[in-house]
Amino acid sequence: MALDFLSSLFKKKKEExxxxxxxxxxxxxxxxxxxxxxxxxxxxxxxxxxxxIENEVPRIKISVDTLKKQIQELRDxxxxxxxxIKDVMMLYxxxxxxxxxxxxxxxxxxxxxxxxxxxxxxxxxxxxxxxQIKNDLKVIAGYGVDLDSIIYEVLAEV
Length: 158
What we know:
The structure is a single chain. By secondary structure, this protein is mainly α. It has helices at 2-16, 27-99, 103-109, 111-142, 147-157. Among the domains are: 41-99; 111-158. Helix 3 (103-109) crosses helix 4 (111-142). The longest helix has 73 residues, at 27-99. The protein is rod-shaped. Keywords: Archaeal flagellum, Cell projection, Cilium, Flagellum.
């Protein structure tokens, strides 16, 4: 009996609570509410994606910096290898020209060896000219000519 009494009190209170009046909502208001909810969801998705991107940017920057450093190291290595290969090729050309019995044939085919031969010829010509100049200076000095004045005159003309 006490249970029935208590339950009737609660039922009455529930029944007595005023229910909010159900006002008919406009279709426009409903559409606006749906649109605002959709916009809010889109904004939240965009904000989440922005946060993800902000978290990824420092890692990407570190990766890019590491790659730049590695690329520069590779460039340096390639430059050193290129220089070493050129040096080895020059050494090979010089040695092969000295040892090779067919160097006359190779001299015609290889521009580098022809340049070396030309430089050798010019060097020999310079040696001959220097020897002639020395002999001329000895002869001139033997006649008592003042070489210092001649040298100053030549340098003044240049």
